[in-house]
């Protein structure tokens, strides 16, 4: 017979596993519990049974089968759905993680494995003194991007322990609140805006005073270039499908590291995911500027983004002399006096990289009079059999459209053709040395893209028309305050390309202590001999020789942003109704459908014309509706569809940022736009 007390009891046995490091102490503890016991009470009962005096405040229950944390301690076991067969592990929420930064340095630090990745990245960025953490995320390197070595030798392993920067004792890493003063824009500048070296107060960011200076130096200053042999061993994408592999491993920002099978001491990549670098300020962003520069540098060296030979030499010149050599000597530079700093800040304000590029002018625009451009330009129309028809017409640029006429006198009548540039792709086709200043326009039409090439006579004409085309593609006119800064940015980039030969550099390249193979991609190393590369890099250097360290990095970033493929993240997709795979390029303001075989854009869709998007989680299909009854749907083949869904929502979230707002992120809005309902 069973007693009435036992019969009415609803207790049951639950086996709990404790993740601790104490030797000779059991790790499994059976407890008798009831369904109405809350999670906090279960913790208390377990700690009392363990009988080990230690701080258990960072511990929580991880449910192995369901792959979830039981963080709501006021919930009962019944509400959580915990039953006798549940495998609960009592483990720390903060664990050690290795992060490979954009500058290829590895840091080891303690990260929350229970917080959503978005929050974890925010904490990591506070630790590393990087503002605007919403621009970054964590990436798992896919197996396809890890080059298989033919031989397993000791030299081909991951970086040795001495190359890892250990930041596990920093305040945020230890679970303590960060020093908000160092993260505030209102305090005294924490970096020298000329050299980018940390101010003395910044050293308090790292709790270990003996390694503080070294830590800041590694994060804020550029490293010496890698050897050509090391560069050759790294993964270099050859096709669009290869480039798609680079973006397959982004972690889900709405789930924790533990939920995504990230293990303690595992290595992840910390990268800028969203290419909208908002409010860059040399006084506070030396680490951020350096890491953006490094991500751009490696993207160019590994040919993750295409650039011309002329552009490659500019990038090489900025690396070789300014960033590499000045970084090595920046610690010995004296602080600049206040007047000089003011002049540098004024110069750098023109280089500030924002969402749309350039700063707003203080001059009031006459909004009733929209400017126009009118010039003789050459129109190039591609013909079949590789023949091109080139003819000069009188072009008029007004609002967001280009009209062209037979000549200036006939401009009062009907144009031969009117091209609406809103939503088009604008691609530069420039070779300064050959005096070629072309603009390639890919204009959306019903059955794809209409190609139009414009040829300008000189740099000034090209800069004005190119800037107008770029703004028109975004739906803006030349009355917009960003037009003049855009013109100046284009002229500045052209000026860097327009170098003259230095006789001494050309005749005596062997006198220069430089390995040019370290500064260009392997393709150009094979194309030119070492002396030829050195001489050509020295030529390019003539126009960048007077820049400061931070200005050189900002110029490098700006030149990177000027490349046609900048900011595109590629994915292999299958569009609904299509019988072949295509590539989808995701940018900050548009989606581009690209032919996988030829690499040519097929169609462009702007976010500004998007009405709504959603995901059918059962069939993993993304569906998007645009204005004018345009709808598209596709499944993602190279990654989970959640990654593209998060990219779209993330870029829309970033477009809501404003300098007038405080530094606090609207995390709830981010998850509303990117989370999805699976």
Name some characteristics of this structure.
678 residues; alpha+beta; Ubiquitin-like (UB roll); PH-domain like; seven-stranded antiparallel β-sheet; 18 helices; 24 strands; FERM1 protein; FERM_central
What is the secondary structure topology, with strand pairs?
Blueprint: H1 4-8, E1 12-18, E2 28-33, H2 39-50, E3 59-63, E4 68-70, H3 77-80, E5 88-92, E6 94-100, E7 106-112, H4 117-128, E8 136-139, E9 164-166, H5 209-220, H6 228-233, H7 240-246, E10 267-272, H8 286-301, H9 309-329, H10 338-349, E11 372-382, E12 388-398, E13 401-405, E14 417-420, E15 425-431, E16 436-445, E17 448-456, H11 459-473, H12 483-497, H13 503-507, H14 522-527, H15 530-541, H16 549-561, E18 569-575, E19 582-586, E20 590-594, E21 601-606, E22 610-616, E23 621-626, E24 630-636, H17 641-654, H18 667-674
Parallel strand pairs: 1-5, 6-10, 7-9
Antiparallel strand pairs: 1-2, 3-4, 3-5, 6-7, 8-10, 11-12, 11-17, 12-13, 13-14, 15-16, 16-17, 18-19, 18-24, 19-20, 20-21, 22-23, 23-24
């Amino acid at each position: 017979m069973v007693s009435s007390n036992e019969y009415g009891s609803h207790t049951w046995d639950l086996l709990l596993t404790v993740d601790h490091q104490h030797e000779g102490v059991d790790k499994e503890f059976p407890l008798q519990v009831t369904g109405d016991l809350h999670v906090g009470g279960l913790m208390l009962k377990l700690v009392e049974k363990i009988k080990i005096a230690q701080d258990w405040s960072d511990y929580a229950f991880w449910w192995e089968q369901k792959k979830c944390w039981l963080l709501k301690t006021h919930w009962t076991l019944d509400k959580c759905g915990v039953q006798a067969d549940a495998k609960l592990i009592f483990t720390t929420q903060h664990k050690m993680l290795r992060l490979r930064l954009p500058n290829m340095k590895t840091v080891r630090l303690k990260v929350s494995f229970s917080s959503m990745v978005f929050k974890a990245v925010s904490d990591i960025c506070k630790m590393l003194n990087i503002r605007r953490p919403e621009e970054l995320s964590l990436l798992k390197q896919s197996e396809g991007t890890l080059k298989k070595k033919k031989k397993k030798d000791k030299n081909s392993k991951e970086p040795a322990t001495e190359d890892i920067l250990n930041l596990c004792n920093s305040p945020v890493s230890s679970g303590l609140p960060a020093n908000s003063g160092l993260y505030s824009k209102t305090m005294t500048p924490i970096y020298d805006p000329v050299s980018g070296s940390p101010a003395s107060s910044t050293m308090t960011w790292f709790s270990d005073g003996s390694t503080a200076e070294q830590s800041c130096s590694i994060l804020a200053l550029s490293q010496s270039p890698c050897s050509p042999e090391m560069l050759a061993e790294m993964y270099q994408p050859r096709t669009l499908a290869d480039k798609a592999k680079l973006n397959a491993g982004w972690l889900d920002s709405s789930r924790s590291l533990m939920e995504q099978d990230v293990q303690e001491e595992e290595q992840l990549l910390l990268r800028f995911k969203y290419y909208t670098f908002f409010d860059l300020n040399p006084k506070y962003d030396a680490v951020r500027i350096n890491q953006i520069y490094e991500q751009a540098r490696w993207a160019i060296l590994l040919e993750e983004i295409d650039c011309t030979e002329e552009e490659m030499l500019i990038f090489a010149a900025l690396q070789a002399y300014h960033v590499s050599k000045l970084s090595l000597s920046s610690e010995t530079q004296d602080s600049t006096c206040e007047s000089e700093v003011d002049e540098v800040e004024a110069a750098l304000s023109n280089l500030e990289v924002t969402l749309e590029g350039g700063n707003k002018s203080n001059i009031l625009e006459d909004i009733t009079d929209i400017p126009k451009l009118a010039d003789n330009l050459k129109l190039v129309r591609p013909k079949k059999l590789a023949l091109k028809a080139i003819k000069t017409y009188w072009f008029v640029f007004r609002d967001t459209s280009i009209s062209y006429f037979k000549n200036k006198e006939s401009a009062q009548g009907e144009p031969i053709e009117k091209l609406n540039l809103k939503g088009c792709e604008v691609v530069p086709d420039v070779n300064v040395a050959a005096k070629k200043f072309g603009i390639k326009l890919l204009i959306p039409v019903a059955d794809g893209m209409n190609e139009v090439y414009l040829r300008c006579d000189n740099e000034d004409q090209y800069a004005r028309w190119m800037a107008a085309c770029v703004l028109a593609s975004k739906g803006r006119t030349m009355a917009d305050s960003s037009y003049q800064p855009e013109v100046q940015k284009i002229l500045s980039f052209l000026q860097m390309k327009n170098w003259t030969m230095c006789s001494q550099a050309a005749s005596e390249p062997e006198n220069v202590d430089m390995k040019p193979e370290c500064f260009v991609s392997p393709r150009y190393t094979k194309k030119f001999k070492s002396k030829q590369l050195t001489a050509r890099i020295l030529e390019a250097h003539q126009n960048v020789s007077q820049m400061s360290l931070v200005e050189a990095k900002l110029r490098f970033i700006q030149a990177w942003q000027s490349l046609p493929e900048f900011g595109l993240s590629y994915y292999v997709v299958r569009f609904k109704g299509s019988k072949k795979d295509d590539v989808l390029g995701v940018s900050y303001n548009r989606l581009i459908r690209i032919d996988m075989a030829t690499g040519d854009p097929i169609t462009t869709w702007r976010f500004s014309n998007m009405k709504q998007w959603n995901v059918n989680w059962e069939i993993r299909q993304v569906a998007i509706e645009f204005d004018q009854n345009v709808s598209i749907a596709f499944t993602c083949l190279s990654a989970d569809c959640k990654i593209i869904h998060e990219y779209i929502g993330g870029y829309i979230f970033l477009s809501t940022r404003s300098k007038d707002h405080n530094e606090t992120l609207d995390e709830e809005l981010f998850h509303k736009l990117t989370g999805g309902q699976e």
